[in-house]
Amino acid sequence: MTPNPTSAVNPSQDSIDLLATWPDDGPIAMLNLLAFNGDDGRAAYGRYGAVASKTVAARGGSAIFIGAVTDPTSNWDSVVLVYYPRRAAYLDMQRDQAYLDVIPERTAGLRARLLYPFALPEADVAPTLTAADTEVFEIELVHSPNPAHVLEPTTPDHVVLDLPAGGPGLVTDQPWDHLRVALYPVSRVSYCQPTSHDQHEPGRQHRLAARHTTSGLVMSRRVALITDTNMHLGPDLARELAVRGHDLVIGEPAAGLTTELEGLGSAVEVVDGVANLSDPTSIQTLTKRALDRFGRLDAACVRTGTILSGSVFDASVQDIHDQVKDNLESVLHTIQAVIPPMIGAGAGQVVIVTSAAGNKPALAAPIYSATRAAANMLIRSTALSIADTGVTLNAVGTNFLDYPNFRAATGADDPDIRAAIEKQVPMGRLGSPAEVAHFCASLLDGNSRFQTGQFFSLAGGWDN
């Protein structure tokens, strides 16, 4: 690898000290332009990124955008835009020993770098930038010697971010006043070289185009855990979250599902032997595999429980113990495994699938109904206890879903029996697992963070 001057890739202590003097009055977006030292350098930076992603997430930060530069005139290879809730979060990273230990990997991996903070508006949710395959982002840096004559965007309707400087440049050879990010169809992007002050009054510009990617870098995509992906909502939810840009940790996948998810662009960690969630090691293993593989866990959907039918007068104490173990203890194990790392990261979304029978007495399954109701209350109570941590927790209960296990249990493959069952549902039909998956995805994909401590019933109105 080609040697580089350390000052070309690492901020000096003086520049970090100068950033610390700025008011810590809002979130920042730290822009990284990266030029790798060949393939070995990209790999070295990836090792750095694996640790950096954990360090950033532990302080409430996240990647807004990671892209590969497509501009043939640019000397840069990648763009990384990272959200920090405050400047203090970035500054605190510089004292984290695990992070400091991998900075030599970053130094070896890069031949050049630009590092510059820009101010973000206050918001409940960190921004993220996504694009279709037919679109590309254009990143524009602007410097105007006269603040009264800031260069205006040539196509303002396409601008998705327009941010003022949020501090002094940490690794840069000149000051920049604004960062603009615009989204265009690929065919509309016009590449340009950096424009000097003399050539483009009243300021300077630097533009480059980039497309979203995770190649060679860590911390770009959200990571979701789904406990069983061979039935019920699991396969459809995995597909939906893959389409929404998640890497996945999946338990017990259906045949062919892993290849399908990888074809949708997701990195997939498969975990077998974890179907029994009443065994605490199952959810612990899933969580550990997520953190070991990806260094983060942003979302989890855990489907729990078993059903026991029959009259309460025929039930035994052992029946109650078994149902508590399957329907209530499994929820406790889930809460204790997946939520602590999310609290540590300052963000996360969890959906635990229980049953609509926990919201309405089930005459044919009273013990099942009672333990499901207890599980729902445990979820809701826990959610309120962690509501100020950035982690949301909700319960989703289903009934009358058109999937093989329900049809086998109820005889609904027989048309006459199915018709009788559908008459019990106010909507007059069975629901599809895809409908449940789409609903749960909206609670898990990072875009809906103001709903917690709720029980949502997806049973066609049966439990109203």
How does this structure look, described?
The chain has 464 residues and is of the alpha/beta class. The chain has 12 helices and 15 strands. The strands form 2 sheets. An 8-stranded antiparallel sheet has the order 4-1-3-2-8-5-7-6. Strand 9, helix 5 and strand 10 form a beta-alpha-beta unit. Helix 2 runs antiparallel to helix 4, helix 5 runs parallel beside helix 6 and helix 8 runs parallel beside helix 9. The chain is elongated. The N and C termini lie far apart (67 Å). The N terminus is likely disordered.
Task: Based on the model shown, name its key terms.
464 residues; alpha/beta; 7-stranded parallel sheet; 15 strands; 34% helix; 22% strand
Low-confidence sequence ranges: 1-5, 189-202, 214-220
Strand segment tally = 15
Q: What is the number of helices?
A: 12
Largest sheet: 8 strands, antiparallel
- The secondary-structure class comes to alpha/beta
Radius of gyration using CA atoms only? 26 Å
In short:
This protein is α/β, with parallel strands linked by helices and 464 residues long. Helix content is 34%, strand content 22%. Strands 4-1-3-2-8-5-7-6 form an eight-stranded antiparallel sheet.
